[in-house]
Amino acid sequence: MSTFRNPFAAAAAALVLSACGPQAQPTETPAPAETPSQPSTDTAGSSQPRELDPLFAQAAQEFNVPAELLKAVSYSETRWQMVKGTEEFPGQSPAFGLMALRGTDLEQGAALAGVSVEAARTDAAANIRAGAALLSRLATEANVERGDLGAWASVVARLSGIRNPDAQAEHVHRGVYAVLNEGAVALNTDGSVAASLEPVKVEAKFARPQVRAMAAGPDYAAAIWHPSPNYNARPAGAGGDPSMIIIHTCEGNYAGCWGWLVNPDAGVSAHYVVNESGSEVSQLVRESSRGWHIGATYDCNLNGGKECWLNGTSANNFTIGIEHGGFASQTSFPAGQIDASAKLSCDIARDNAIVKDSYHIVAHGRLQPATRTDPGPNWPWSTYISKINSYCGGTVPAGEIVVDSNNANNDAAKARFELTGAWTAGSSTGYFGSGYYFAATEAISAPATFWFYLPTAQTRTVDGWWVAGTNRSTAAAFISFNAEGANLGTATTNQQINGAKWVALGTYNFSAGWNKVQLSRWQAAGSVVIADAIRVR
């Protein structure tokens, strides 16, 4: 794992770079009930070594491209992460690798570098070489003076694939060349350097964004107004009033994202886009208008049984969409981006009387699971919802603690999740937070453990959440222990029913310190148990 530090975007310090590529991701597609099996392996994962600097240096030398430029392009696109892109906008190919190469660029870069397209997608060295080869060819075509770093700006713009002039200029000046001027460093968790870029004072030889594009957004004063033509009127009546916020990732960088969404030919839009560091927000569509950001009709079974009266209607009718620069496959999101987005969501929720919880501020992938996964399993939902409530002056139930199966969603001071033995990430719909785990039942002591901290001894009620299915255990045992390890009692549940909602497991006298609830696997073979989330209230 690596942590990013960047003077140009200090908030990016919270980003984490995996030393072995993106973690295995739930597919978030409607899936049959899981069958007992050993944990799956992410065979489509990406290969990313702990040291990237030598790879950038070798590719730069091989293709006569400035190493600093190669690093800056990569950082502005992916924050030096090996991404495994998915489709977010129709007509835009998924991006792959450290250089976020797409479609024909990926194919041409691979050919120029003499590597396979699959290698260019999944291998860090091959992906960097493919990107360098593309930059070199574009420089030749543009007759760029290769020793003049500022003259490469037109090549950077062409490689981006961005067609909107203002967005293209923003990508060059406030993206790639801002990174060049400020520098960036990625450290592994042991303190060694994964990648680094020393500041280079250079001016991009490229037109700057037009001043007219910097007007404030009509609904959010902190936003920049980049109006999109891709919207229409919301339907009359309660079904057209905004009642949910949908969280997306662009599957690309910020400038390319809003630049695509203001294109009349794109046929898609979102109401807002938040940049990677949280330093800028664009508004594209008025909140009162119907944006075109989700291609699904609403099904309350995908969303905890909430607002079922909206079933069968287009989710665009009653939602406001927020895109975020970045990828569903990334291992973490910058703290600054989460903070800026939370402030925006607070403003939207307050102005439109939207409930501030995870059923009304919801993932794109949850409502459109057949074709979308964003914002991915590492979006910090608990932190995000808490921040929204904090900025809006709202409160969460006093002392309530939720422990999710993804620790990115947990407040580490109060909750954590732990697995022992062979568990597999699940993908069926109806999960809490961002995914869950399942494991085969057998005579083995290898539980899933939900830990929670209480400052004093307290009597609390524990609820469980799981995804129901026909092969689930009818006697899944949740065992509660106090901080001293004493067994307080067991709740036996039928996980074939009562899925996608909180189910009471019992009330117990817990002690001060770290208490726990363990989901046992110890029963007859032939079924699976689901470890998703617990709530302590």
From TrEMBL:
Gene3D superfamilies: 1.10.530.10, Peptidoglycan recognition protein-like. Residues 1-24 form the signal peptide. Its EC number is 3.5.1.28. It catalyses: Hydrolyzes the link between N-acetylmuramoyl residues and L-amino acid residues in certain cell-wall glycopeptides. Keywords: Cell wall biogenesis/degradation, Hydrolase, Signal. Residues 228-376 form the N-acetylmuramoyl-L-alanine amidase domain. Residues 22-41 have a biased composition (Low complexity). The keyword Transferase does not apply. InterPro entries: Amidase/PGRP_sf (IPR036505), Amidase_domain (IPR002502), CBD-like_Golvesin-Xly (IPR033803), Lysozyme-like_dom_sf (IPR023346), NAMLAA_amidase_2 (IPR051206). One of its GO terms (molecular function) is N-acetylmuramoyl-L-alanine amidase activity. Pfam families: Amidase_2, Golvesin_C. The keyword Hydrolase applies. Residues 22-50 are annotated as: Disordered. GO terms for biological process: cell wall organization; peptidoglycan catabolic process; peptidoglycan turnover. It comes from the Bacteria. This is N-acetylmuramoyl-L-alanine amidase.
